[in-house]
Amino acid sequence: MASKKEEIIQVAEDEDVDSILRRLEKSAAEKIILFAPPNAYFFASAENLKAIQEKLKEKSAEWFLLTDDKLGQKYAGILGIKLMGEIKKERLPAGRQVQKETVPKEEASEIEGFKKRSSLSEWFSKFKHELPFKEHNEKEETEEVVDEIKKEIEQEETTAPLSKKRGSYGKTKDKNDEEYETEEDVLDYGPEPEEEQRAFKSLKKIVKSHESRFKKITIFSFASAVLLLMIFVTIFVLPEATLEIKRKTTPLQMNFIIELNKNTSVVDAIKNTLPAQLIQIQKDVSKDFPVDNKQVLRAKAQGEISIYNNYSSKPQTLVATTRFLAGGGKLFRLVNKVVVPGALIENGKIIPRSIKTAVIADQAGPEYNIGPTKFSIPGFMGDPRYLGFYGISEKSMIGGANGQVNVVTKDFINNSIDSLKDEALKLAQADLQNRITSDFTLLDGASKGKVINAKSSVSAGESADSLHLTLTVEYDAIVFNMKDLKFLGIKLLEKNAPDDQEVVSSTISLTPTISSADFDKGVMIARLSAKALTAKPINKNEIRSKILGFKSQDVSIMFLQNDAVEEAKLTFWPFWVSSVPTNSSRVNVNVEPQ
After folding, report:
1. pLDDT tier at 363 (50, 70, 90 boundaries)?
2. 398 pairs with which residues across the strands?
3. Which residue from 307, 320, 404, 520 has the highest number of Cβ atoms inside 10 Å of its Cβ?
4. Could you give the C-alpha distances from 383 to 308, 344, 354, 370, 377, in angstroms and in order?
């Protein structure tokens, strides 16, 4: 019996690798000898032996493979697995038995197929498919490599033949035979002959040679295919010809008088008119101007009040100089006669009505420059109308003076208006430009600004420390769409071009100049200077179809007698192409000017 540190695990001929792995998992031995009979099922693939090797690496156990199976020995040599000596014919003592794990029924049918693998030729049928390359057009070459491998291994079998029928330990036995060879005979550590290693090296060399040859063939085939594709593309796809034609041209220059009218909706090449738009901008601008004009002045304060009738529905007439007494005791008089409208009577209630009028202080002096207040009429005192009629000022009275004060002059007011006018018109012009969209054009001289109203807080001759001025300005502009102008210009040029020529649109130059503008009517008269080149028409598709297959000199001869062409230049691509392709899609015709 082996010690606990060592265990011999016998593998049955039909036992699969999963069963072996489960048995190895259960083993606690530090040294394991895996005993496998010839033609063992798990030798069908080197991957099975590699799986066992990985499992024992995980267990950190030292292990050896004991077998007479040549294929198993070769796999072990490749994988670096330690081999023990050849199996002796003597039997182990009774009791040295290693039971195999029962194989499930569903796995038995798969194992049965591999049990029948008894001949070397059958093994090579499987081995050929496990070679590290795929079968391709060089099929015969692959078969030659397999034949070489087969011959080498058959020579080894001739020098070291196996028994005709192998039992579990290399001897013939019955299924019920439970006697085994002795452990001492099994543990015969003799190395495999050197010819086995030479056989492995020969096998690796042949396979490696075939792989290298296959790679070279693959690279050569790919390079050949790429070269053929490049030749095909170069001959049938890439060739291209480009014909550059420069037309003979004639200059044309005309001057026209045109009308831009806001009441016209379409371009009229007969009347030389085109649509226009009138844009008007109004803007109010205010500013305070300090007064610095000291003079000795006696002046009465003036202002404006609203007179209310809250007495009856009848109007009340008040004569000029009628007195109005302010809350502070300052007396003012009406400048002009007024008629105060009667009150409204609705549902028995009186709704007062009023009228605005100018008043002037009874005396000169700055003390009459009072703020907003309520006024009574002293002449109605003791009369019911005293409470029914009254006045209210919304702004302060101004202009009262008695001594040296700042006096506003007419020149000062006019200069202030001129100063504010420039500022106001610039602001209005900026607003106008923002109103003009990108579709429209504003020419120089097609806009105009003016002051339509000026309002001053004081009049000339009145005293004030500052002048509050408000200007209302208006800016007008007549604009048009440049597309309409180009359309009209082309039509006018075409009417004056030679009969057999066309106007070259890319050479058209139009310069309008404003002659006059009526901003009230929205009408503008302009002078239009029109320039362009004319040339005979050339049909590019017709020329393309004519030059298919032509040589360069043939194309040059074709255009020598063409009075519409000044110069024709033919270029090819790639550089070795010498004639125009027969495929019209590979021929480009460019005409200049266009």
Report:
1. very high
2. 302
3. 307
4. 16, 21, 20, 28, 11
C-alpha dist (Å) from residue 138 to 23, 48, 134, 147, 204 = 45, 30, 10, 15, 20
Question: CB count, 10 Å around CB of 150?
Answer: 16
Asked whether 577 and 241 are in contact (CB, 8 A), the reply is: yes
Answer for the pair 83, 65: CB distance below 8 angstroms, yes or no. yes
CB distance 274 to 480 below 8 Å:
yes
Token code pair at residue 91: 């039997």
Q: What is the pLDDT of residues 505-536, one digit of tens each?
A: 999 999 999 999 999 999 999 999 999 999 99
Q: Residue 195 is encoded by which pair of tokens? A: 């010819």
Phi, psi of 587 (to 5 degrees): -120, 120
Question: What residues have CB less than 8 Å from 162, skipping those under 6 apart?
Answer: 38, 68, 70
Strands of 407-508, DSSP E: 440-441, 447-456, 466-481, 502-503
Tell me the CA end-to-end span of the chain in Å, nearest whole number: 108
Hey, which residues does 270 pair with through a beta bridge? none
Instruction: Give the integer Cα–Cα distance in Å for 296 and 406.
Output: 9
Residue with tokens 């359309």: 487
Is the Cβ–Cβ distance between 59 and 187 less than 8 Å? no
Instruction: Report helix, strand or coil for 385.
Output: helix
Tell me how far apart the alpha carbons of residues 516 and 521 are, in angstroms, rounded to a whole number. Answer: 12
CA-to-CA separations, 461 to 286, 400, 467, in angstroms, rounded? 21, 12, 12
| Tokens standing for residue 239 | 């060739």
Residues facing residue 567 across a β-bridge: 246
Strand-pairing partners, residue 42, are none
- In order, the DSSP letters of 411-428 are HHHHHHHHHHHHHHHHHH
Query: How far lies 2's CA from each of 7, 62, 100, 136, 186, in Å?
Result: 6, 15, 18, 53, 12
